[in-house]
Specification:
With 266 residues, the protein is mainly beta. It has a single domain, classed as Jelly Rolls (Sandwich). 5% of the residues lie in helices and 42% in strands. The strands form 2 sheets. Strands 2, 3, 5, 6, 8, 13, 14, 15 and 17 form a 9-stranded antiparallel β-sheet that branches. The chain is globular, with a radius of gyration of 17 Å. The protein starts with a strand and ends in an 8-residue tail after the last helix.
C-alpha cells in the first residue's frame, strides 16, 4: 500500500489552482532573460548537438533508431525525438506498454543517498504526440532495484500533466504529487529540480516549470538501500504513433548553473 505524505507538501495553493498553463514557452522562443553570472558548477550537460550516446545515454526501444535528432531545439540546433509505434511493447520490462526511452547510468546521474543536485531539462510535445488513454511517462528518476514505482516521474494523462514521487520503504512508500493542468502542444516546458536524494526525512524535491515553483516536498526521495538513474521517456499505454522531443539536460550545483531563466523563490 502506498502512503501519501500530505504534511510534507508545501504547495502554493494559488499556483495549484491555476496550475494550468500557460506553463509552456513558445516553440519559437523570444530572447531569454539574462541570468546573473553563473555561480556553481555544471556537472553534466547534454544538448544533443551530436548524439545522445555521446552524452552517455543509451536507447531502450523495440526497434533501434526510434530515438533521432531533429532540428527542433530549446537551445542549439538539435533536440532528440523519442518515437513509438503500435507494438513497441515488452521493452525493458514495459509489458504491454510501449516505450522508447533514453537511460543514463546511476554514476552519471549522481543519484545516491545524501547526494544533492540541481537538474534542468526541456520537453516539447509536438503535433504528433498522442495522449495515451492509460497515461504515460515523459521523464523519471528510476531506482536501480527490481520492481516498484520510479522515485520521481513527469507524467502525462488525458486528465493533465503531473509530477509524482515516491520514497522511503519500497514496500510501503511515501508518495507526493502535484497536478499541473492540461498539456499544451508545441510549447517548451523548462523544468528545474532541486533534490536531495535520501530515504529519510532530510530529503527534498523542489520543482519549477518555466520559472514558476510548482512543488515543494520534504521527506524521502529514495528507497532504502537503492540508487537511481535518469530516464528521458516516451513510455505509455498502447496508442497510435507518438513522439516527444527532449533537449537541454543539465545537472549542477546551483540554480544559476542550470536554469535558463530566474526561478520563483530563488
Amino acid at each position: 500500500m502506498t502512503r501519501t505524505l500530505t504534511g510534507s507538501l508545501a504547495f502554493a495553493l494559488a499556483a495549484c489552482a491555476s496550475a494550468a498553463l500557460p506553463l509552456g514557452a513558445p516553440m519559437t522562443a523570444q530572447p531569454l532573460p539574462a541570468l546573473a553570472p553563473a555561480r556553481g558548477a555544471v556537472q553534466f550537460a547534454c544538448d544533443f548537438e551530436r548524439s545522445a550516446s555521446d552524452c552517455g545515454f543509451f536507447e531502450q526501444s523495440k526497434v533501434p533508431g526510434r530515438a533521432t535528432l531533429v532540428p527542433v531545439a530549446r537551445t542549439g540546433q538539435w533536440g532528440v525525438r523519442l518515437h513509438t509505434e503500435p507494438g513497441d511493447d515488452h521493452v525493458h520490462g514495459s509489458d504491454d506498454w510501449e516505450r522508447t526511452d533514453l537511460s543514463l547510468s546511476p554514476a552519471a546521474t549522481g543519484c545516491a543517498e545524501g547526494k544533492e543536485a540541481w537538474w534542468a531539462h526541456s520537453v516539447l510535445f509536438p503535433e504528433d504526440y498522442v495522449l495515451a488513454p492509460g497515461g504515460g511517462v515523459v521523464m523519471d528518476f528510476h531506482h536501480d532495484g527490481s520492481g516498484g514505482n520510479a522515485n520521481f516521474h513527469f507524467n502525462s494523462a488525458p486528465t493533465g500533466l503531473r509530477l509524482h514521487g515516491f520514497g522511503g520503504d519500497s514496500r510501503d512508500p511515501i508518495e507526493y504529487r502535484i497536478e499541473l493542468g492540461p498539456l499544451v502542444k508545441n510549447v517548451w516546458y523548462d523544468l528545474v529540480y532541486h533534490v536531495r536524494w535520501s530515504s529519510g526525512e532530510d530529503g527534498f524535491m523542489v520543482a519549477w516549470i518555466n520559472g514558476r515553483k510548482v512543488l515543494t516536498h520534504r521527506g524521502p526521495t529514495l528507497y532504502h538501500g537503492l540508487k537511481c538513474y535518469l530516464k528521458l521517456a516516451n513510455y505509455h499505454s498502447p496508442t497510435a504513433p507518438s513522439s516527444i522531443i527532449h533537449d537541454r539536460v543539465l545537472r549542477g550545483t546551483s540554480a544559476a548553473a542550470v536554469a535558463l531563466t530566474p526561478l520563483e523563490g530563488e
